[in-house]
Specification:
Length: 108
């Protein structure tokens, strides 16, 4: 399978390529920021010792995660974000590799 067949991407919405930031640049900057914030809030949630503080952080985390997902969807819709298709053989190899791990989990 060649490189082009492995990409999953919508047709790209064209934007002006100038030294000034365009819509794609702004969305990409916002998406990167939201990803960073989501990771940071996740760490804070793991380390919050006060339940009320944890609940407040969780609400902010959920809003941030929703914003990140909406930005991702918008970029994908406009063809400004692509993902790689997983090869069927690699999926099967991973499934075989990890299928024996089920006995390590408390609930089967």
């Amino acid at each position: 399978m060649n490189q082009q067949q492995q990409k999953v991407q919508n047709p790209e919405t064209q934007v002006n390529k100038t030294p000034q930031m365009n819509d794609r640049d702004f969305l990409n900057d916002m998406l990167t920021t939201e990803k960073y914030m989501t990771q940071s809030y996740s760490t804070a949630l793991n380390e919050a010792s006060n339940q009320a503080f944890y609940q407040d952080l969780l609400a902010i985390y959920n809003e941030t995660q929703d914003t990140q997902r909406n930005l991702y969807n918008l970029m994908f819709k406009n063809g400004w974000y692509s993902i790689e298709k997983a090869e069927q053989q690699k999926i099967q190899q991973s499934h075989q590799q990890y299928s024996g791990y089920t006995n390590q989990f408390p609930v089967h």
